[in-house]
């Protein structure tokens, strides 16, 4: 069981069925660069975590969460090929272990070290795999990982929309980013399993849906609704459809890289939980030219998640959501209960949803414009504000956890993890 793995950090036994539900939050650790690499948007710094991490972990316990999406910043820890600065991670992970909080370790969250450059660097997958293995060796008691957070969003924002990191807008750069990010995730998982054979990977990935507002928009919606699956298709070894295959081949992905994904992914998939992230902005309305705007909730979390689950057949964890508290102060709380209702409906219908995450523990900074501008706008969407005072949604989440932890219908799940040699 996960509890047994936490209590016996050196255990390498086969994973037994786990009965229960993970209630989680996260420490916001996005770290892309903007302004052509001149500015690093380190949300751990901007949200005050470096100076208040002990207090933050105590708040995780106070709210009742038993899991925390968390990781050391890649740009600050990976100092060069094979060179690591573990000072901050050593302190923080020792405290998480002492408190009995399960970390879901987030190893790459939207940015890479300056010396790597950006997601166009073809060396990134191997450099990242070495780092992932080094982390697993340093912290062998850790079992839960998100190697590369939101692979789809990382590639789109960096190499399609031109907002972060390489800030490119062309299809070849976009496909190169997808290639490097997915290969990094696959190689990272394989490297971790070499150290921890019973590791579990919770892919935190954006869950999207695209809608046509007129008949002329239908081809655009068809393309985007195929494109949204690209990173997960490659990560889970599912053959992409013909439209996406042509797109990948036309824009620089090699057949060797494509077949590497098909060959390597199936064995890794057995260790995976499909983490999906859901916000009000995840459904898009496309016009005749293919340009999109936010559509609000047309289908909603449970309907779109059901599509992803049907495609991959994996257990699910809701790995991110939040909403500003709004002018009345209660919109975030209403959103929390709406998400929870969607989870209960999925479970009722037989979809194995294993956990829920309000992201993040504290308010964030400048996400109202996707970190593209350094304005210092505080986004009131945390369980606590930046002074670490509870927000209304934080109190509601604590009540939700207290109410449902002991009575939530359990669903057993078991990953068939081979014993180490």
From TrEMBL:
GO terms for molecular function: hydrolase activity, hydrolyzing O-glycosyl compounds. PANTHER family: ALPHA-L-IDURONIDASE, BETA-XYLOSIDASE-LIKE PROTEIN-RELATED. Keywords: Hydrolase. SUPFAM superfamilies: (Trans)glycosidases. Gene3D superfamilies: Glycosidases (3.20.20.80). Pfam families: Glyco_hydro_1. This is Glycoside hydrolase family 1. The keyword Hydrolase applies. The keyword Mitochondrion does not apply. GO terms for biological process: carbohydrate metabolic process. It comes from the Bacteria.
